[in-house]
Amino acid sequence: MEGNRTNRILLLTTAHSYRGEAFLQAAGRLGIEVIQAVDVPPGLARPAPGILPITFNRPDEAVAAIVNLAETRPLTAILAVDDSGALLAARAAQALGLPHNAPEAAQAARDKYVMRQMLAAGGAAVPPFRNFALDEPLEQVTAVVQSAIGYPCVVKPRALNGSRGVIRADDGEELAAAVTRLRRLLQSFGGETYLVEQFIPGFEVALEGVLANGRLHVLALFDKPDPLDGPYFEETIYVTPSRLPAETQQAIAAMAERGARALGLQTGSVHAELRVNEAGPWIVEVNGRSIGGLCSRTLRFEMNMSLEELLLRQACGLDVSGLKREEKASGVMMIPIPQAGILRGYSGVEAARQIPSIDEVVITAPLNQRILPLPEGESYLGFIFASGQTPDEVETALRLAHGRLRFQIDEEIRLSVAGNR
């Protein structure tokens, strides 16, 4: 492939995506031409070489622009970098007759309520759940939850990512407070409904894989050693390979494949989150995308291949099911935001980098900008990467490195102008 430049990939991305550059570098190594379809607001599009400006929330116009582009520059495949472009990628690939997941499957992977319905119908293990209107009286919500779901339960927005807006409630009073808080968040996004489901006890894992004709090939299974029991569900450490028994890992993979099949996902990336207890694995979510943020840096495959290179190879029609992850252990810590405020500075990065097994420390949060923790927030302070001989060694290094970091976060000062002239 390296000498063949006839492959052309359309990459659906946003201006602030962490992943775009990684895909461009991988494409350069493979000799693949990449055109970036970048989500921009209407009226702000500016032509540039290798860039197709489109608006994701105007899908009919965006699909027409992609089809028009393909008339003069035929495409091998269309890839979405994250959830925001998944539905558009499916619709455009369908219009062009390229390999794709059904648009309905892509939509389900972006809507937690639709996903829960399809997972349940497909025989995947999911907890009891109900959908509620944003203006439904709290007394009615608590009555339904008490009778049909039970406590503890989890309140979730249907469309937000990264555990944003996800809150655990252990009784009716906590449920009312959680719903009130989520309502405030959703009002700024125009959301009209939300989900309440039974809390799933147990530990959590993340699975990264690829689908080929509906068959799942597991690329990595990540342990999440920090408990995710609420009241909020901020992810921190991912470590692979998993330390779980082989039979447990096989059960997790089988449930993830069942979930993908229930949604109608057939090809490309799969990122699944599952919880495991004495009843086996339960699906938190299954998405037709690859791992988010900078976390893909934890994964290297044969011939020092990146995850982005593997996905591009598959998009160009190559069989990647035989590729294996490198043998050494690796992991990432998504540095949590401890409090709301203005990030003024940080220290300890070089000291953290000196910890054995630490590969890199990257601070991504911009200085002098407002930051928010979960459940309202949607980002992290940065990422710590480690690799070593064992998962335990990697986990220890990540924790030690995090302990050396210090962040200066100033409280926001809200000035009242009442009485001022």
Characterization of this structure:
Among the domains are: 8-108, Rossmann fold (3-Layer(aba) Sandwich), CATH 3.40.50.20; 128-198, Dna Ligase, domain 1 (2-Layer Sandwich); 328-412, D-amino Acid Aminotransferase, Chain A, domain 1 (2-Layer Sandwich). Helix content is 30%, strand content 29%. The protein has helices at residues 20-30, 59-72, 86-96, 103-108, 112-121, 138-149, 172-187, 246-263, 307-315, 349-353, 391-403, and strands spanning 8-14, 33-39, 51-54, 77-80, 129-133, 153-157, 167-169, 193-198, 203-212, 215-223, 237-240, 268-277, 280-287, 300-301, 305-306, 329-335, 341-347, 358-363, 370-371, 382-388, 406-410. The strands form six sheets. A four-stranded parallel beta sheet has the order 3-2-1-4, sandwiched between helices. A four-stranded antiparallel beta sheet has the order 5-8-6-7, with helices on both faces. Helix 2 crosses helix 3 (86-96), helix 5 crosses helix 8 (246-263) and helix 6 crosses helix 7 (172-187). The chain is globular. The chain starts with 7 loop residues before the first strand and ends in an 11-residue tail after the last strand. Mean pLDDT is 92; it is low at 415-421.
Short summary:
The chain is 30% helix and 29% strand.
Mean pLDDT metric = 92
Q: Quickly give the structural class.
A: alpha+beta
Helix content: 25-40%
Please name the CATH architecture of the domain at 8-108. 3-Layer(aba) Sandwich
Shape: globular
Radius of gyration: 22 Å
CATH class of the domain at 8-108: Alpha Beta
Could you list the spans in which at least 5 consecutive residues all have pLDDT below 50?
415-421
User: What's the CATH topology label of the domain at 8-108?
Assistant: Rossmann fold
Number of helices: 11
What topology, given as strand order, has the largest sheet? 3-2-1-4
Termini gap = 69 Å
Main sheet properties: 4 strands, parallel
Beta-strand proportion:
25-35%
Total beta-strand segments: 21
